[in-house]
Amino acid sequence: MPNLSQLLTTKAKPEHLRLFNACKDLHSQLADIDNIYVCGGYVRDLILDNQTEDIDLCIEGNSKKFSTMLSERLNLGKPHESQFLTFKFVGGKGKDNVKSIDIVTCRDETYPTPASLPDVIPSSIDKDLNRRDFTVNAMAISLTDQHWGDLIDPSNGFGDIMRKRIRVLHDASFIDDPTRVFRAVRYATRLGFNIDTHTTELITNAIGNVDLLSGTRVRHEFEHILKEPKVCEMLRKAEDLGLLGAITPALRVGPKALEITSDLLKESSGDLQLEDLLARVTFGLNTDEAKLTSSRFDGPKSWTDSISGNAKLASVVGILDNPTITRSEIADVLDDIPLQCIRAYIATGSTLPRRGRLIDYLQTIRFEGPEITGEDLMAAGVPEGPIIGQLLELVKRARLDRKVNSKKEEMDLARSRLPEFLTHDEDA
Ligand code: ATP
After folding, report:
1. What's residue 11's pLDDT?
2. By CB distance 3.0 to 4.6 Å, which of 33, 168, 181, 401 could disulfide with 61?
């Protein structure tokens, strides 16, 4: 069994090493903890010399007691406890603390039906590693005094890291859990690895099962891909494996969509909004495709808006080329279009004059409004009710079209039109 204590000492960050040493001490003090391991992505990234912040600890024994003791020892605060005896600490109190620690009880899993959530029972580290997605994620390092640094690697994940290979642990893996197809795409692209031939065949055979996943699970996995720095490469790989079509046949990511997504990544300084990414990767979907895709993701309004807004804009954007269009009419056309879709359209390098008008809308028009308020109108004697809103809208349009340029001119306009609005109101 290889021992990675040297790697732990030289490559782990000081705060991580402090945590691991605390684990070692606690193990020697607590009789009902058999073993403590750091496992999964942390081990993979340690071997690859990649920086990682999230630490997964696997406990053989009383993980609740261990979490309490660890918290006291490192001043981590109260953990968030969730299903299957899992405890999470996020951003511990001390400034030198680890950003995210997940403590789980070693477990075994069975899938009652394909693509369902698994049944879970406490178990050993070997069983726990055997339930994992890929060999490169199925390794653990012991943190006890007696076995400090021992690598537990039942499926030769170390060898697969050396061969740069993503490989599943058993043939039913993607049938049990089709979210692993998304994960295969993510790890292969992120790490620059190949998906091994047999694993690719298994993906091809199980791709239809992606359809069994709930909208929430599919959306969650898609979002993980969108948040990766190599999102465009991942989407290409997902397309090659038939994954996009398996999410819904309506979803395709065309060359223009990839180009403007890639531009967004190049221009950003790490402050990317999910809505902008969504609007760009789904650019080019027609109204029906957008509708089917949004419904498959079953997401919040921001998802539906971002996916459907492009087709909506495409259906009205031609109006902006009208040479006599006014600024208030531009607002009429664009007020219902999500801003991320306007930004996506501009990014395609659209031509003048519509481009200038889209930019004008984003930079100025959408912020402009009247200086006068409803209170000002009421103070001037306008009766409370819908007239207030109608007059403010009239003044807003006049302001956008530069027909009035000061608060006084706005009020004069409102006063001059008031009788006509009152007459309408009486007629109604
Ligand atoms: P990342 O860098 O993407 O966060 P990670 O390996 O830490 O990588 P997580 O999603 O945090 O990934 O999951 C932690 C570990 O849990 C993984 O390394 C893997 O061993 C296991 N795991 C997560 N999801 C699955 C799954 N769907 N099927 C099997 N094992 C999984």
Report:
1. 93
2. 33
Ligand 1 geometric centre to CA of 43 (Å)? 11
Establish how many alpha carbons lie within 13 A of residue 309's alpha carbon, considering only the half-sphere containing its beta carbon.
26
Cβ–Cβ contacts within 10 Å for residue 299, how many?
22
Q: Are 330 and 320 in contact (CB under 8 A)?
A: yes
DSSP β-ladder status, 140-142 and 33-39: antiparallel
Q: Are 22 and 73 in contact (CB under 8 A)?
A: yes
Confirm if 121 and 107 have CB atoms less than 8 A apart: yes
Q: What is the per-residue pLDDT across 382-410, written as a single tens digit (0 to 9) for each?
A: 888 899 999 999 999 999 999 999 999 99
100-105/54-61 β-pairing: parallel
Kindly report the protein residue whose alpha carbon is nearest to atom 16 of ligand 1: 40
DSSP tag of 162: H
- Burial per residue of 343-359, b for 16 or more beta-carbon CB atoms within 10 angstroms, e otherwise: bbbbbbeeeeebbebbb
Instruction: CATH number for 1-162: choose from 3.50.4.10, 3.40.50.261, 3.40.630.30, 3.30.460.10.
Output: 3.30.460.10
Q: DSSP secondary structure string, 95-107?
A: TTS-SEEEEEE-E
- Return the pLDDT at 424: 64
The number of the ligand 1 atom at minimal distance from the alpha carbon of 40 is 18
The pTM of the full predicted model, rounded to 2 decimals, is 0.91
Map out the domains of the chain as residue ranges.
1-162, 303-367, 374-427
The closest residue, in CA terms, to atom 12 on ligand 1 is: 41
Mind giving me the DSSP string for 3-67?
B-HHHHHHHS-HHHHHHHHHHHHHHHH-TTEEEEEEETHHHHHHHHT----EEEEEEEE-HHHHH
